[in-house]
Amino acid sequence: MDKTEYRFDSVVAETLLIPLYFRAKESRRGRHALLRDETAERLVAGIDYDYSKFDKAGMSAIGCVVRSNYFDEAVRRFIATHERPVVVNVGCGLDTRRQRTDGEGRAVCYELDLPEVISLRRTLLPDTPGDTCIPASLTDTAWMDRLRTAHPDGDFIFVAEGVLMYFYERQVKAFLHAIASRFGGGQVWFDVCGKTMLKAGVKPDSLRQSGAQIRSGISDGHEVERWEPRLRLIEQAIYQRMHTRRWSLPMRLLALMPGVSKGFSSLLGYEIMR
Predict the structure, then answer these.
(1) What is the mean pLDDT of residues 42-71?
(2) Structure confidence at residue 210 as a pLDDT band (50, 70, 90)
């Protein structure tokens, strides 16, 4: 099989290969897999890259899969309970959430990422009816206005997976404010590193050989409500409390101390009030 070699201009853009690789590895577990992603398997096999640097990142390997599965379930619920669902995958990379969550094609889907990532995505995963790429930064609000105009009666869910920790707190606040001010009645879901991890300068094990930096942290999901009153916390989930048998004993013990766990990482979902 011929492989495609690709060089990234941005170290943050290059991190898209981490969840792609871990989804492919998980998918190859067959009936024991938490998720199936045959497209990820194909893409990993076709991109010329030294993935071995991630093979010792055991916590990230399970964490990425648990995270993807968690957000997939949030999207499935949203699609099932809303009449005009619009799913926006913020920082999409080479994710295949549309294929994993919307087999019946009920939702309109958008894939947003930096222009160099969208260029790669369109080469490997061309746009399909109902699933459109947007080359833009999440800090740009013009794409939000275009989506609101294109779907004036749409029910929006935004998922920013593996993205916001690379932005400064002021940028995260601005992004959430912009979403909340335009998309009342929708939802926004994202994962975060906690303040303990941020202050200690600790990176997830998959990033220790990367130049990408963690720039913001949230430990208490209610803090976001204080930033933006139109956001109401649905849930703050702890990784290690999901699929517990896949985690090491120390990680399972950490889950018994939720405050400590949230200081390192968690998953957040919010309703956007009208």
Answers:
(1) 93
(2) confident
Phi and psi at 101, nearest 5°, equal -120, -20
Going from the C-alpha of 220 to that of each of 6, 141, 265, the distances in angstroms are 38, 26, 10
90 three-class SS: strand
Rounded (to 5) percent helix, strand, coil in the chain: 45, 20, 35
- Strand ranges across the sheet with 187-193: 131-135, 108-113, 85-90, 155-160, 187-193, 265-272, 231-237
Q: At residue 87, does pLDDT exceed 60? A: yes
Taking alpha carbons only, the member of 95, 85, 77, 74 closest to residue 15 is 95
| Tokens (6 digits) for 90 | 């913020």
Q: Which amino acid is at 115?
A: P
Give the pLDDT confidence score for residue 13 in this predicted structure: 82
The overall longest dimension of the chain from CA atoms, in Å, is 52
Q: How many CB atoms lie within 10 A of CB 13?
A: 18
pTM exceeding the 0.90 threshold for the entire prediction: yes
**pLDDT at site 168:** 97
- How does DSSP classify residue 177? H
Q: Which 3-state string (H, E, C) describes 193-260? A: ECHHHHHHCCCCHHHCCCCCCCCCCCCCCHHHHHHCCCEEEEEEECHHHCCHHHCCHHHHHHCCCHHH
At residue 191, the 3 state secondary structure works out as strand
CB 231 within 8 A of CB 185: no
